[in-house]
Design goal:
single chain; 2 helices; mainly beta
Length: about 240
């Protein structure tokens, strides 16, 4: 990957796949996450909840990047660590990239800096516009839309039109699986920690802008305590078997 992660919110706003060519211009690489022009495709995470000091860090909160290398080291790994403090809580995001791996580690450490307990929930969401890919045509159309998987209900395929109409029926709760956006034989999927109970949602964000995601309660965090959770982001060729494992 070549990834752009915005310090405003710690949002993955551009993700370039270095081993796949663009559909239109073979001299360029395939880009999944992107913002600008007619298309929006973003990976967003943050906390839901509030304290007397205000709302908790979310995907609109400014983050500070810790010093460190931003390219792969000799061990084939690089980590980007970012911190934000808001509402008496510090959220630390750690993105881990590994050479040859389409799965990005996404760790969240939540530290209660206040003098009272807090009960945050972590959300992982993928945001996408409702447009068809530029290379789609009526005689060669490929699926683009939200998908999800749970061990109980298996693979579920939705449409942006269903979300627009409020008729997107899908599994709402699970402790396993993933949520994703499939786009023209590629997929980006947030895979929360296994056996961690979460709500699964789809929603309209704005005109022609939609989201699929999960919300995971993190329990009660005492003053001075830290709670951590590890999730993953797979972004690459469409492969449900890879995601199942």
């Amino acid at each position: 990957f070549k990834a752009d992660i915005d310090t405003l919110g710690g949002v993955i706003k551009r993700l370039e796949l270095l081993k796949f060519a663009d559909d239109h211009d073979k001299t360029k690489n395939k880009v999944l996450f992107n913002v600008g022009g007619p298309n929006t495709y973003l990976g967003q995470t943050g906390l839901i909840g509030s304290t007397p000091a205000g709302v908790l860090p979310n995907h609109t909160t400014p983050f500070t990047v810790r010093p460190g290398p931003l390219t792969l080291g000799t061990n084939g790994t690089v980590q980007l660590v970012m911190d934000a403090e808001q509402g008496g809580v510090r959220l630390t995001k750690t993105f881990t990239f590994r050479k040859g791996d389409y799965t990005i580690g996404v760790r969240h450490d939540v530290t209660n800096l206040s003098t009272a307990p807090v009960q945050p929930s972590l959300y992982l969401q993928l945001q996408h516009d409702g447009n068809k890919p530029a290379n789609d045509s009526w005689f060669m159309s490929s699926y683009t839309g939200p998908t999800l998987y749970t061990a109980e209900d298996k693979y579920q395929k939705l449409t942006f039109e269903q979300i627009e109409k409020g008729s997107a029926e899908h599994t709402n709760k699970s402790n396993n699986g993933w949520v994703a956006i499939s786009q023209h034989f590629f997929v980006s999927a947030f895979i929360p920690a296994d056996k961690a109970q979460r709500d699964i949602f789809t929603k309209k964000i704005a005109t022609n802008l939609y989201a699929i995601g999960t919300v995971q309660p993190l329990g009660t965090v005492a003053p001075g305590a830290t709670v951590s959770t590890d999730s993953r982001l797979y972004s690459g060729p469409q492969d449900e078997k890879t995601l199942e494992t």
